[in-house]
Structures are given as C-alpha cells and as structure tokens.
Amino acid sequence: MELGKKQKLVIVKVVDFGAYLASDANNHEDKVLLPKKQIPADKKVGDSLEVFIYRDSKDRLIATTREPKITLGQIEELDVVEVGNIGAFLDWGLEKDLFLPFKEQTRKLRPGNSVLVALYVDKSNRLCATMKVYPYLRTDSPYHKDERVVGMVYEVSEEYGAFVAVDNIYSALIPKRELYSNVRVSDHVIARVSAVKEDGKLDLSLREKAYVQVEEDSRELLEHLWSHGGRLDFNDKASPELIRERMNMSKNEFKRAVGHLLKKGYIVIEEDGIFLHSSVKSIY
217 with 157: CB under 8 angstroms? Predict the structure, then answer.
C-alpha cells in the first residue's frame, strides 16, 4: 500500500463499521480500513476496489473511494479553507483537509485564496502540501518556440523574473526583461514560448513576436495620445525606465511603435514630446 496514491486493493474482511482492504488477498497483515459508507453495495470479500490511501484525523491510515484533487507528486491549484497557528488547510476533496505548513508557504495566505501546491510525504510519514513546487515540475514539455501556453505564476523573483508552472506540469520562466506588467503569485497567464532551453525548461513572453506586437503597441500609443490631449511629454529618446513605467514597453518596442505611427503620418515628434498630427480627427 502506498500513501498518497490511488491503487487497487482487495476486500479481505467486512465488519460493522467498514471493510478491511489488503494488497494481497492471501496476506492480511498489512491492511487498511475503508469506512462502511464508502463500500459499494455490490462489493464483497475477494473483490477489488480502487482507493486512495491517506491518514485520518487520528493519524491512522485509511482508504477512501472519493477522488482526491491531488495525488503524490502532482501539482494542482487548491483553495485555502482555514489558516491556523501552525499553517493553512486546503480543500483537496476529502473529509480531512490537507495541511500546508508555514515553512512550505511562499506568501501569506487567507481563507479563499487559491494556491498552487505539490503533495509530498513529510518526515513523520504524513501527507502535506508545499507551495515550493519547483522541484516537482517537469522539463519534458511538448511545446516548441512561438507556441502559446497557459500557466500559473508560483514565484516572482526581482533577480530572475516570474516562475510559471505551465499546465501545472512544466517548468517555465518569464525573464525579468519580459515583465512589463505587475505579474503576481497565483496569476494565470497566457504566454508565448520564446525559447526552449537545453535543459528543457521554457522561457516565456507575455508579448507577441515583434512584427505582430508592433501593431498592438502602436494602437496603445495612439490611444494614450488621444486620451491625454494628443500629447506625450517625452519622445523615443527617453530613458528605458521612463518608457517602461509610463508605456509598459521596452525602449525598442516603443521606438518601433513610434516609427510605425510616424510612417503612417499619425504623429509628430518634437524635442519636448510626441504629438498627434493635426490631420487625425479620430482614432476609431
């Protein structure tokens, strides 16, 4: 019998309060209880059942036919039910909530939060959750450069960027240079694979390829000008930091958008800023 996993066991004994299951019909020494209310009506001694093994509120091994939301080694998004003095408790679809120790949390939690966690067995042979999912992520994704992926941010580093679990399975990173918006832990993102590294990990971008992105950036710049009286108080010679802060773009992306609009005759560039051309009466 394996703690934290679904497995097929055999009914070896039926009692008033349930049925005892074992991995071998001929060996009853290693057995676990399945509560009576979970025994299918058509099952009897000798029949097999697929069950999940965990520990009850008294730390005893127990079987269940209920479907857990996470099994050993998996990574899933679970809801916080309660936060106590020793950690948080998560809803994983079973009668006893799943324990998430404080030392395995990467941010402060409140009831109702959704968190990405992995399931592991602690030193006391109990099932626990951890928000430190990096070691559990795989590097054999089927994705290729420029494909779109969906993932959840599980850590944000000032040095490296935002770490993402793609499909809750694969290891990925949005590099710091690609973080133009306020990405936070637990955010769901749709991103483009910008590179597949030699070790199999994915680099992601929240922006499209340059020739596609220039249209979107140009539209954003045009809308910004229109909503601010037709004027932007700096031009494409401004610092990268100012451009990123005000326009949510890199300097290169900003310059491409400016060049695109200039070519179309929509804007005028002057020393003190960028202005809508007088011929632009509407942007819609």
Answer: no
Tokens of 228: 């601010």
Token pair in block for residue 162: 């935002």
Token readout for 168 is: 């809750």
What tokens does 145 get? 């450069």
pTM: 0.71
Query: Are 156 and 187 a contacting pair, CB within 8 Å?
Result: no
Give the other-Cβ count within 10 Å of 159's Cβ: 5
Write the pLDDT tens digit of every residue in 127-141.
Answer: 999 999 999 999 999
**Which of 208, 119, 120, 113 lies closest to 152, judged by CA?**
113
List 14's β-bridge partners, or say none.
19
Contact 171, 138 (CB under 8 A): yes
Asked if residue 4 lies in contact with residue 119, where contact means CB atoms within 8 angstroms, the answer is yes
Residue 22: how many other CB atoms lie within 10 Å: 18
Q: What distance in Å separates the CA atoms of residue 117 and residue 129, rounded to the nearest whole number? A: 6
User: For position 28, what pLDDT does the model report?
Assistant: 63
Query: How far apart are the C-alpha atoms of 251 and 35, rounded to whole Å?
Result: 64
- Name 65's Cβ contacts closer than 8 Å, sequence gap at least 6: 34, 38, 40, 49, 50, 51, 52
pLDDT tens digits for range 45-104:
888 999 999 998 888 899 999 999 999 989 999 999 999 999 999 999 998 999 999 999
Query: In sequence order, which residues have a C-beta less than 8 Å from that of residue 267 and are 6 or more positions away?
Result: 222, 225, 258, 261, 274, 275, 276, 277
* Nearby residues of 89 by Cβ (< 8 Å), 6 or more positions away: 80, 81, 82, 83, 97, 98, 99, 100
- Mean of the per-residue pLDDT values for the chain? 89
